[in-house]
């Protein structure tokens, strides 16, 4: 059976470095530079995987053969079948994550999706709320935040790319000794969630924010 071993952020990393190689090949720079871009890219890609079989490793090493947009496209297409989708979430699981919400308007596609994304997120325009679902250590957690109505071009906290972002004030789920105390963490996040998922190459910032939101205060 085919083993799906490439997660969304790993695929984004591979794509990023594959395109870097195409750019290096297109600019008339020396072969030494192209060689360096290829091997440092491959190294950065491999760092993203905890373990790789010989076969998986060889698949990724084909990045070295890229010398044009066409060969880049072929390389990425070949990897497409090894991409892992995100675990589906049931309506029951969702209710457990947001117990106080009488009704959460979850876009239907989310529940049926097996998308190649890193996190689920959607906006409730009426409430001006953004919801986020992420599998942290194998278990789904859900957080929500209020977003600002103004947006501007800046770096997104999750994907670290310059995009149209707005400020999202996430509310902590952690318990505090003081019931009137609410911890809020605000970050600039991409307006376009699909784009953010297509660009995120490292999950550490997203996970870091979630850990902070879940951590109990003394
Ligand atoms: Zn983003």
TrEMBL record:
CDD domains hit by this protein: FusC_FusB (cd16342)
InterPro entries attached to this UniProt entry: EF-G-binding_N (IPR010841), EF-G_N_sf (IPR038344)
Pfam families, sorted: EF-G-binding_N
UniProt domain Elongation factor G-binding protein N-terminal: residue ranges: 5-83
Superkingdom in the source lineage: Bacteria
Protein known as: Elongation factor G-binding protein N-terminal domain-containing protein
Organism, as annotated: Sporosarcina limicola
């Amino acid at each position: 059976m085919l083993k799906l071993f490439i997660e969304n952020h790993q695929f984004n990393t591979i794509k990023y470095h594959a395109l870097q190689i195409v750019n290096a090949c297109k600019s008339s720079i020396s072969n030494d530079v192209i060689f360096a871009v290829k091997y440092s890219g491959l190294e950065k890609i491999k760092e993203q995987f905890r373990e790789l079989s010989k076969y998986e490793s060889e698949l990724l090493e084909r990045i070295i053969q890229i010398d044009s947009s066409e060969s880049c496209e072929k390389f990425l297409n070949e990897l497409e079948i090894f991409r892992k989708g995100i675990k589906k979430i049931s309506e029951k699981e969702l209710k457990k994550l947001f117990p106080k919400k009488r009704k959460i308007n979850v876009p239907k596609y989310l529940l049926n999706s097996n998308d190649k994304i890193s996190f689920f997120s959607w906006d409730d325009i009426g409430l001006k709320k953004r919801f986020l679902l992420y599998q942290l250590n194998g278990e789904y957690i859900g957080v929500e935040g209020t977003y600002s109505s103004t947006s501007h071009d800046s770096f997104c906290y999750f994907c670290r790319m310059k995009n149209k972002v707005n400020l999202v004030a996430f509310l902590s789920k952690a318990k505090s000794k003081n019931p009137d105390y609410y911890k809020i963490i605000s970050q600039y996040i991409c307006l376009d969630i699909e784009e953010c998922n297509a660009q995120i190459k490292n999950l550490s910032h997203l996970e870091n924010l979630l850990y902070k939101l879940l951590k109990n205060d003394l």
